[in-house]
Design a protein that fits this description.
With about 110 residues, the chain is mostly beta strands. About 0% of the residues lie in helices and about 70% in strands.
Length: about 110
């Protein structure tokens, strides 16, 4: 099944390290209205390459009475365009009712 999805991460780097932490949100635009809220831990092995681990909760159809554990493992490779960064991204996501793989375009803004 193919669907459009959107991920939003707001992360802050630990001072002068390759690690960052923050919050994440995912929405898949399909008949299930799948949504996930998560904490995000990021690691940059290089200046352009990023890995994210994002444990959180997921639900469907705006029904927050049935929350399930979710885990997202993501990676992106960034090219800088001024304050923006853009590049390919891939994700593997798990929850007890679904496993999905996503590929897409990462667009970020550094502030």
């Amino acid at each position: 099944e193919l669907s459009y999805a959107m991920h939003i991460h707001l992360v802050r780097r630990f001072q002068e390290t390759d690690w960052a932490y923050g919050l994440g949100y995912e929405k898949i635009f399909d008949e299930h209205n799948h949504q996930t809220y998560s904490g995000v831990l990021s690691y940059r092995p290089t200046e352009r390459w990023v890995f994210n681990a994002a444990p959180g909760v997921t639900f469907e159809e705006n029904d927050t009475s049935e929350l399930n554990f979710a885990l997202h493992i993501e990676s992106s490779y960034e090219f800088e365009l001024g304050d923006f960064h853009i590049g390919p991204a891939a994700e593997l996501a798990y929850d007890p009712e679904d496993i999905h793989f996503s590929i897409g375009l990462h667009v970020g803004y550094g502030f």
